[in-house]
Amino acid sequence: MRHHIADPVVHREHWREPEDDQLRLECGVCGVWGADEDEGSAIVALGLHALQHRGQEACGIASVKDERFHTERHQGLVGEAFGGADLMTRMPGRAAVGHTRYSTAGGSFLRNIQPMFADLDQGGIAIAHNGNLTNFKFLHGQLVSEGAIFQSTSDSEVILHLIARSRKAKIVDRFIDALARIEGGYALVAQTRHKMIGARDPLGIRPLVLGQVGEAWVLASETCALDMMGATFVRDVEHGEVVVIDENGLESIKPFPARAARPCLFEYVYFSRPDSVVNGCSVYEVRKEMGRGLAREWGVEADIVVPVPDSGVPAALGYAQESGIPYEMGIIRSHYLGRTFIQPSQGARQKGVRMKHSPNKSALEGKRVVLIDDSIVRGTTSVKLVRAVRAAGAKEVHLRSASPQILFPDFYGIDMPERAQLLAANKTLEEMRELLEVDSLGFLSIDGLYRAMGETGRNNARPQYTDHYFTGDYPTRLLDREIEEGGREVSARQLSLLVSA
């Protein structure tokens, strides 16, 4: 078994501008079983390229051939790490799993990069995980007290320990044993010597899809990864389902009591690529419908509709189509600045938004502008954009958010500020309008968002989707949070020792 943690291709510390107003993506996972000889890692690398929008901080692949694992984990982008022609030589095998990440749990340290690997008495297992465990600290502390030794601060390693400690005879049963103890939103892809296993949390909060490329089976966070891998979409992995793929084909297991699905709405608002189909819904069409609903709810007399690129584009198209107001590219986005770009001084940092988003004066000058964004978090980026649009000569600026007001933090894999930092949780609509320096401000209603999803509205008694960031209605128990608020210590003391130079 060769277990290699590569030197970083490009060293990037986990750094976040104090006024950064962008919601950070969770992670992306994919895997392949039964690829043509030694092509497993290459197919997975293609899938990770398509999922790069879900995490740009680090990436990793684990492949298996002749019961031997080959793993590489790198800081940086997928193309930098796995773009070489020698990839299939370095990482041979017909089966592989991969992961691209933004660190929602743990830090950006190399040891936290996935897939996580462990040697068990039944052989090796590599796991790639998207989402967050809401009882991670509780389980971590419990395992440490029982003698477990952790090498990372990632919640994914807890799952490996739970699998290792299970008394079940078969690896699949051990995997299910571990799932029975974890809580939160997750999609998992695991690779053993002889099987690939996929699992989705009981509510289907995080997405996972199943496809085929030739005779090979593939799993991925989004359908856009299947497209990149040349795979055909078969179906979504169902909420609470475990799929096991080996030489005998595919087996579906539903080990837990049936519950109604509640997928995450932010997959449609922001996270998923617009060309993906998530839970049977086209992300692009949903976002356009969000814009149409926004125009119906918050229409205004204006000359042009301008998106905040890129995530605001489909909603702005929908708004323009519904309102009859012309759509214009009033803001041009640079695609050559990495998300981890660090400006050297405070003055340069203040200019950061103009480096990424530049106003198009010829489109904006003298115009009444409807500015469409996917969401408003803290408002720091929004006010900079509004000022830039006004400086380019806009006569009026009417800001519209294609999602409802974000009022509560997330604990299922979205790096979202605490409630005290969320603009809408602390200001009235009029106070927000004044702070953002706009002529008018409007947010899509929660029922409007549900209508964009094809529903008649939100079923308040039995919500159809996970929407706690808008409503405060968390779909699962938040054990770590409950214990912290109760004043009990749950953070593992040894985490403080895991500090990189």
From TrEMBL:
- State which pathway it belongs to: Purine metabolism; IMP biosynthesis via de novo pathway; N(1)-(5-phospho-D-ribosyl)glycinamide from 5-phospho-alpha-D-ribose 1-diphosphate: step 1/2
Where do the annotations place Mg(2+) binding?
S311, D373, D374
UniProt-annotated catalytic positions: C27 (nucleophile)
Q: Which GO terms describe its biological process?
A: 'de novo' IMP biosynthetic process; purine nucleobase biosynthetic process
Keyword presence, Acyltransferase = no
Its needed co-factors are: Mg(2+)
Which parts of the chain span the membrane according to its record?
Answer: none
Read off the Pfam families from this record.
Answer: GATase_7, Pribosyltran
Q: Which UniProt keywords apply?
A: Glutamine amidotransferase, Glycosyltransferase, Magnesium, Metal-binding, Purine biosynthesis, Transferase
Which EC number(s) are documented for this chain? 2.4.2.14
Q: Which Gene3D superfamilies match?
A: 3.40.50.2020, Glutamine Phosphoribosylpyrophosphate, subunit 1, domain 1
Q: Name one GO molecular function term.
A: magnesium ion binding
Please state which protein family the record places this protein in.
In the C-terminal section; belongs to the purine/pyrimidine phosphoribosyltransferase family.
Q: Which HAMAP family match?
A: PurF
User: What is the role of this chain?
Assistant: Catalyzes the formation of phosphoribosylamine from phosphoribosylpyrophosphate (PRPP) and glutamine.
* PANTHER family documented for this protein: AMIDOPHOSPHORIBOSYLTRANSFERASE (PTHR11907)
- What is the designated name of this protein? Amidophosphoribosyltransferase
> To which species is this protein native?
Brevundimonas mediterranea
Organism taxonomic ancestry: Bacteria, Pseudomonadati, Pseudomonadota, Alphaproteobacteria, Caulobacterales
